[in-house]
Amino acid sequence: MLAKRALSRNRGAMRRAAFLLVFFLALPAFALPALALATAPTALGIFDGWGAFRDPDTPRCYAIASPAATIGKPRVKPYASVGYWPKSRIRGQFYVRLSKERGAGRELRLTIGSRRFILTGNGVHGWASDPRMDAAIIAAIRSAPSMSVESTAASGGAIADTYRLRGAATAIDAAALGCARLR
């Protein structure tokens, strides 16, 4: 009787293993066509530490950079970007993803040269509160050597991500031109 139960248990385990093996071997056959449909963003140019890209699937264009320095070990990959979504008539929208999750109710400060902005957002996300602030941020980016985003992390530590702005103006212009005809 014991031998019969052990054999039955082994058959069940073998069936599960066979199913998983077939499933994972067949998965690439189904996933590859889906991946082929997604188009990779087109590089419009790399300008010092900033890159400009066009994503034809959305369509959108954006200038993007990683921070030159951050305090502590990042929990997510931080970046700052300026985006254009021509079909939605959104132009020059500033966005930042922080290196760590921000504490609830904590202020998110953006400093560019002598200009200071209080961003809105949640978690690791931050953006300008309105299009006027977007325009002011982009104007400040064009004339300053660096910018920093600061807040307090959910864990209580500091968040400080610093970006070099050399090449930012050119990347922003390339992104704007890259989407100028897409409407």
Automatic annotation (TrEMBL):
Keyword set, alphabetical order: Signal
Keyword Signal: yes
Signal peptide per UniProt: 1-31
Superkingdom of source: Bacteria
Protein's UniProt name: Mlr4354 like protein
Naturally occurring in which organism (per UniProt): Sphingopyxis lindanitolerans
